[in-house]
């Protein structure tokens, strides 16, 4: 059976991806989370959907480099996973981040530094084994800093640059690095934005795109696909036009 490790397994995108993976065929799934109860709930749902799958739960500190390294060493001791999906994150209120430097630091770390540390920890054994797919969920918010979410966007910008560098490093190996950039998606993390009239994608549709893209080893996935064009325009808008926009 294929072995898949999901870091941030309680995220809605990750959970829906896991459902699709076990629907294809039984899997060995390792679900990593920060909350035992929430992560076990996801695992129990997957066990009901796929009794033949082997599903384990691991709870660890996502912000401790030593803890991450030790855990990844253990997970890869009997062989590297076929797929690693790094999916954790949080969506803060931008104004709160501007007022509270502690929160600002936490958001930058959780959404940027922590995913990079997990990816780096898995990249080394994958490179030695010369196999596996490493998928990292970033965001369209990382394509250009905007006043409405630039702290979150800066963290996701870090993920983008990190993934690009990792792709370059592993270009001559059989290890695939997939960077995923979802647009606004209907998940619990975006619940507070619904009052702002944001147009959300269905999380099940986003998950399907991710699963297909990961299977193909697609280097960059925008989902829904319309965000390829939207963000290309946003990235190339002249500053004097961009600065007049309330986004």
UniProtKB/TrEMBL annotation:
Segments forming a coiled coil: none
Gene3D superfamilies documented for this protein: NAD(P)-binding Rossmann-like Domain (3.40.50.720)
SUPFAM superfamilies tied to this protein: NAD(P)-binding Rossmann-fold domains
Keywords attached to this entry: Oxidoreductase
Lipid metabolism in keyword set: no
Family affiliation: Belongs to the short-chain dehydrogenases/reductases (SDR) family.
The protein's name in its UniProt record: SDR family NAD(P)-dependent oxidoreductase
Organism in which the protein naturally occurs: Aromatoleum petrolei
